[in-house]
User: Fold these one by one.
Assistant:
Number 1:
Amino acid sequence: APHGPGLGYTQLNCDDPETEQAAQVALDYINTNLAGGFKHVLNQIDKAELWSRRPAGEIYVLELDTLETTCHALDHTPPEKCPVRERMEHAVEGDCDVQLLKMDGQFRVLSVKCHSSPDSAEDVIKLCPDCPLLVPRNSTKVVHAVEAALAAFNAHSNGSYFQLVEVSRAQLAPLPPSVYVEFVVAATDCVAKEVTDPTKCNLLAEKQYAFCKAAVPEKVDAEVSVTCKMFQTQPVVPQPQPEGTSAPEVGPGAPMTHQADVTAAAGPVL
Amino acid sequence: VVVKPGGPSLAAAAVRPCPGRIRHFKI
């Protein structure tokens, strides 16, 4: 349709306070609704358009460049206080196309589409030839490293047996040959010292997550170092159910629910 | 360069509204 009066768009200045405010609302939405991985912070606003909307309001169409932080999605640290992943740790950037509606002075996220990609290996090696490089999280070396790290963690646990939830990132270090892994675990209803069959252990209804970092040397019988940060337990949140459906299963074997999923439906309002 | 009176100034034309500033580093 031809553009009528008032239906066109205006190119905004990417560094305008209002554009930055819209970008921040989008970033908050992205970080609140992460299914896993790490929180991101704004690095650069690539494009900003303002479209008028009928019958009322304005639509902000933004292209955002983000950078991965070291805070896991389950970490409650505000993203602005999270350190950006350094280039020597093999940084990861995000490219996001977002649309926000501004009405009555309030922003509401309409759509978000993000794609993340790591820095190129060549760039990291140029910066430091011995820096560990990111590798696929499902590679054999990584899977073995995570298993070894989790076994070491559980061997020293005086309480619950912890189960793997997610492998968040993995790097291969050349000297000495080691695998650096970052992963999420959750407490189960089994006692670590008494577990005989881990497959029979169930995640607790009130989720107790921990984020772990481990260095696993490739040399056989070398010492594995693993440190985990426990997060506050996440209370069981009843999910709104459509009429005629039964209440959600919240037993120990119920599927995991991130609190972020609950806020997704409503959308953030500034 | 001929600038018409009342047209955009050269300074205004030089302003690049986007992309915006880089806050950390560019990959």
Number 2:
Amino acid sequence: EKLFHSRDHSDLEIPSSHQAELITDKDTAELFLSRYGFIRPVNWEELQFDQSTGISNDEDFPGEEDLSGIQEGDSSLSPFISALRDFQMVSGLSVTGLFDDATKAAMNKPRCGVPDKETDDATEESPPPTTATDR
Amino acid sequence: PHRSTLTTTATDRPHQHQNRVASLLSKRRQKRHVGRRAWGNMAFSKMVLKWRLIGEGYSSQLTIQDQRHIISLAFRMWSEVSPLEFIEDTSSPLADVDIKLGFGTGRHLGCNQKFDGTGREFAHAWFLGDIHFDDDEHFTAPNTGSGISLLKVAVHEIGHVLGLPHIYRTGSIMQPSYLPQESGFEINWMDRKSIQHLYGGCKGQFNTVFDWIRKERTQYGEVVIRFNTYFMRDGWYWLYENRTNRTRYGDPVALQVGWHGIPPDGVDASVHVWNRNTDAVYFFKGTQYWRYDDDNDQVFTVDPEGHLYPRLISEGFPGVPSPIDTAFYDRRDYHIYFFKGTYVYVFDVTANRVSPGFPRKITAVFPAVVSGDHPGGSIDAAYFSYTHNAVFLFKDTQFWKVVGRSRDRWRRPALPRNGLLPHRKVEEQWFDICNVHPSALKV
């Protein structure tokens, strides 16, 4: 915002309501999937040590170097693709794991901001609006 | 600071809510999930909830009156299918309001979840708390056929506040994506079960239950006989659609809206005497009774026989005491059965007198099939159902079915005549007969 405005505010442009960013590529799709709970944010504490089971989980995490070998469509390994498949399944689309047009269109439909999947309240930084701890 | 009221207040009360919610959760937690919160298992612990559309958060697209009316209707729709009642409270301290709603764009109302502008996200909600609508969306009133229906979005978000997650079933109001509004959308059967899973079903006593029969002409001039089932409780009533096993959408309705001239605060009984010679609907209340004029949809002041209404029951039905508890007309033996206390008076309509030998004990005329399983007396409602071709006696939230004269006794000849089969809960046979808060009756 400019430090000075003319007194009659004529230089202030009231922004017309802006358009929501459309989901067009993998990055925006990934944001969409993590916002609505299809991709779960990784919580390091939880990974290092799961108190309730007393078992260290780090063997679950595939590790950076393993990711590099993952191909598009190879759903068994990529969190993104398995999240995509999840989304396609609940949206009644054909479950391909591919970021195709039908999936893109479904992601761009008007929708509710509450996540689709249970979210873990460990993500305090940006809690979804539905966690009771907000109260 | 005002603008932040919406959210900070909500956080001000964590402990109070947490206690209530925690108690619920701790019980459930032991049963199902240890260490993880189970979606769909948390609920308000009180049945009457206050809501308010926050003044700073009015939409710029609809009149304030429209916004409040639509949101009030959305709350009422949930009330019609659950024991919850909602009151719009525009005066209590904000901290006492359970559900606060508001419109905003982008960064709004002190919320940590920024809206994304026109398109995609149209609203979000918090468990047991607040609802925000994205005013960059084109919200419209119901049935305008364009834009995003505010009613539909409001019903969806209130579902979240009440504890429901997103549900992917076709036809569910809790689907995450907005589907253009079909005309007359309603909360379907499965969504009703979901909310009743959290808050239980609707229970309550009835003043009377009756089938109202009428003759109609089809477009081909044929006379057909139709009937509707009505449940009455205090000053309001429900039409029960037997085919779809639910009440009519939008019920209950105030008595004076649908039955003109009968006592607006409720009746004791309704009897439809219907045989070859007589077709008369009567309503009983206290010491008087009224006759209803189907054709003019109001009570008679003078009926075709010249009787002035309301009339004393003792005049029209000599030998019958008043007030009565309830009554029903049995087409099979052309008698009206009047109930008062622990006695039943069988009135012979043709002879216009109480049949010899009556009054008798209800337990004698309607003996219990299972010993001890009997309402005893003070029956709330006695109902001859054309759908079930059976008589039911209602008391509190239970009913007893009278042994059918043909089918039941053919199958089990040892059953006593007019015996009462073991009781069941009313809400297990007639579903979703739910109160709404009186303030929502006019919505």
